[in-house]
Please model this.
Amino acid sequence: MEEDIKEKESSVLWYNILNAALKIPGARVDRKEFLTKGLSGCSQEEIAKVLDIGPGKAGVPLEALDKAADAEIRNHTGIVTGTSFLAGLPGGIAMAGTIPADIAQYYWHVIVIAQKLAYIYGWPNLQGENNDDFLAVLTVFIGIMSGAQEARDVIKSMAQSLSQESSKTLSNSVLTRVGLPQIARQVARVLGAHLAKQGLAKGLGKIIPLIGGAISGAVTIATYLPMANTLKNTLREDIIK
Model:
């Protein structure tokens, strides 16, 4: 019973972090806007095709997708290692519970790059049919970035299913069919438990990959960059086409 309570608390802690990051302006990436801007050199017909069926199915060369992904990773890695991000946020930051601001802003960059990489490698609108599905998908993506094999396996299954469909958004039926909700719950407990062990639950700010106060650029580069590249390589391997 005590173990069940701890697992539930870990899951709640994780989703508090995720929801805090999602409250920061710009956390939800608009697929159409992002791809249209990124494909500004293409014709309207080419852009329309990409928006309809995704870059991979539309025949955009893999080299071009890799170039776009690497540029986004470099951009976010550069920003997240700075110390001025929070000060420039419009309206400040809305946090849940005792989530430190540096934690929320770090995961803002994590969830934004996750969405952008997904769209580059052919995924449909991640915000899907309801917010719980969106949180589950983000959690599994971050699980991949953190090395969770079960997260990697379920995303591979999802990519295979999506490659056989023409849906413009993630449907709950697809997520349920591959078992993503269950995997997301497992990953959420693991991520939350890891952060709690580092003192986040007590508001101490002693967490991995962050340190209390201003983010250490060296620490962030050593964690954010490989995490983003891990997700990139996974999505690239299972590109939807």
Notes: The chain is about 65% helix and 0% strand.
